[in-house]
Amino acid sequence: MPPRRPVPLLLPVLALALALVAVPASAASPLTVAQAITTQSGTGTVLGYIVGEPTGTSTVRFSGFTGDTALALADSRTETSPARMLYVQVSSAYRSSFGLLSNPSLIGRQLTVTGTLTAYFTHPGLKSPSAMTLGTTSTPTPTPTASSGTDAYYAAASGKSGAALKSALHTIISTGATKLSYEAVWDALKVTDQDPANSANVILLYSGISRSKSLNGGDPGDWNREHVWAKSHGDFGTSAGPGTDLHHLRPEDVTINALRNNKDFDSGGSAVSGASGNYTDADSWEPRTAVKGDVARMIFYMAVRYEGDDAWPDLEVNDAVTNGSRPYLGRLSKLLAWNAQDPPDAFEKNRNQVVYASYQHNRNPFIDHPEWVSSIFG
Question: Any signal peptide, and if so, which residues (predicted)?
Fold first, then answer.
């Protein structure tokens, strides 16, 4: 037999190397600020909002800028906590274009920056930038997070049920949550409730109408900020806290908002003109079928988030529709049924993720796990 020829092992190795080289580095998505803060190693590209000028390890100036050498990035335009900011060094090549003393109007703009992920001001940072580019002023729509992706967030609730589950979730969604001003809610709703088919519009909760983002206000034909848990049920007003919590604030037509007023939720009544599928009577409101579950999960969130341990009333769900100014909202039996009948859809899941990632940094657990509703309230 002729001798066997040696297998050219170098060829498959070269093929693999060429395949790896063929993948462009740009294929990877930019890091969020939160990801960059935890990474702090090697070179990275980060996308975030310019929110201020770092002046120390835990201090950031939001106006009256004094230099062009540093800026702070965050995942939200409205972020005020330095702990959730990435400090970016602005080297001499970029100061005329990106320094805040020279360009104060950059506040609120998106920036994509590539550089070394390393501490700056002994704070998570990015130094020696090799590229800085202004992004669009609109917020990219985050991918909805599946329940399996939130296991770590809900780790303290694992295996619990009933009152123990409610207590664990209360701690999880209250810890580290950011409170918005009532004015900031306007801009936030333009992002959280953006029409997926028209980025210039928002979707109104009860009527389902797509309306221009610019028509926010208090006149007929405008949309305003609907408190799904009516603020008079506990008299919490519009101060930062339950009155500004995005997990129950939604855009709605001014006239329809006034018709709903502070009514509890129940089935029946007369058809609502201008909001097809909604019904109302003297003491209750029935939303359209497509958002019945959304409404229920917002109410259940509020009852878990606000337990009376943070200077706000202890909000509770009951089976009544005559709650008036008491910190109760009903009707529980209907809300339970609506949660089961109308499970979370893509819009609701995406909204939950946007509130979490860009604004409040807490989640509505009943969107991620609608089965927990019956465990706590059933």
Answer: 1-27
